[in-house]
Amino acid sequence: MATIAQTAQVVSGKEWTVGLSMQDAAWTAETADHTFQTMPLHEVTLPTIGTVEAGGIWSGTTGMLEKDIENFRTTQGGENTWSFSMYGEVTWLARFMAGVTFDHTQATTKHTFEFSSSNAAARPSIGQGMGTPDAVTGPFVWTIAFKSPRSNEGLTMYNAVLRSLTVTFDPSSNEGRAYYEGEFVSFHSILQEQNHSGTWELAPAGAPNYLMSGFTTHTLDVDDNTNNVLTLASASFEFNNNATRIGFNEDGNADGISVGVPQMDITGSITCKMDDTIDLGAANNPLQDFVTAGKTGTLNLEIGDGTVSSTGEMDIIAEIMYNGQPEADLANEAGVMWNLPFKVVQPTSSGASSGIAFQMILEDGVASSVWT
């Protein structure tokens, strides 16, 4: 029997690198020598390989242990996932938003993501025969390369969709920087023993981060009043497009991916100080909004002067409905705070969709052509 000699080398997890590229060919992985955008991760994790398996001792087996042949496992029909988290660098949010919402328009380097009565954001076609993706309008399907410091030991996850994304603004965490957390999913087998020999592009040195302290506007419709100014303590948005497998090919991989079925879920929460603009008194009482069926309010958040003309500026409009009771935190040592959980809904007029449900506009100085 051959014996492999040990080495004294210790491999650090910090030597691993993860690269992302929007696929520029239909339903086909980018090759190992492709150019990837290096994700600025502090901790690298590897994808979880989904399997379908079963096992157990068969009848007629002598003894108390199951045999090797009494076990079944296959990757066909499995769901491969990879979760990431990173600081809120300005140059990365647009591609994540495009990836999770499948809605994107671009004016040079200004990016818009919108669900509204005039832009219902049709469900994308992803799968066999999908055609060549457009760098601006998608559909946004990705290859993710996990580059090992050792040759021919990398992994490639392809035909991946960003299923969920959470964007958090909280001055008490991450030095006040925004934070991104997401999950990619793929229904195609992970490629193993890869040698990622192409160019790996880094974000600009000192790339700016979104900061909680950068918000210049934070207003919310409360009870009978519109555009009440909040003393904002934190805010978060979670997007989930409910991506799932459609069908099988001869290798057990998916024929396609369903996105936005039954719906796109946008939820979140804001924390703000209880004061004259949001309290338990008449006209400013969020509990009245909670107990009134179908009651919504418009949330406005802005970084910058509202023009979204400089790198790092951003506007968010969300029509929200509370999906849990607004809670007054009386034990908070910094003063009484409201915790307001919500979901985003499409507003209506006389039963017909009317106006903006959700809109994010951001300027990041980067055209989507670099995502591929």
Task: Describe the protein's architecture and organization.
This protein has about 375 residues and is mostly beta strands. About 5% of the residues lie in helices and about 40% in strands. It is built from 2 helices and 25 strands. The protein has helices at about 90-100, 285-290, and strands spanning about 15-20, 35-40, 50-55, 70-75, 80-85, 105, 110-115, 140-145, 155-170, 180-185, 190-195, 200, 215-220, 225-230, 230-240, 245, 255-260, 265-275, 295-305, 315-320, 325-330, 335-345, 350, 350-355, 355-365. The strands form 4 sheets. The chain has a 19-stranded mixed β-sheet that branches. Strand 6 and strand 7 form a beta hairpin. It is globular, with a radius of gyration of 24 Å. The relative contact order is 0.18.
Top keywords for this entry?
19-stranded mixed β-sheet, two-stranded antiparallel ribbon, mainly beta, 2 helices, 372 residues, 5% helix
Characterize this entry briefly.
With 372 residues, the protein is mostly beta strands.
| Helix-strand string | EEEEEHEEEEEEEEEEEEEHEEEEEEE
Portion of residues in helices? under 10%
* SS elements, strand count: 25
Count up the helices. 2
Low-confidence stretches: none
Looking at the structure, what is the overall shape?
globular
* Proportion of strand residues: 35-45%
Radius of gyration, in Å, reads: 24 Å
Look at the helices and sheets and give the structural class.
Answer: mainly beta
Mean pLDDT: 92
How is the main sheet built? Answer: 19 strands, mixed
- What gap, in angstroms, lies between the N and C termini? 47 Å
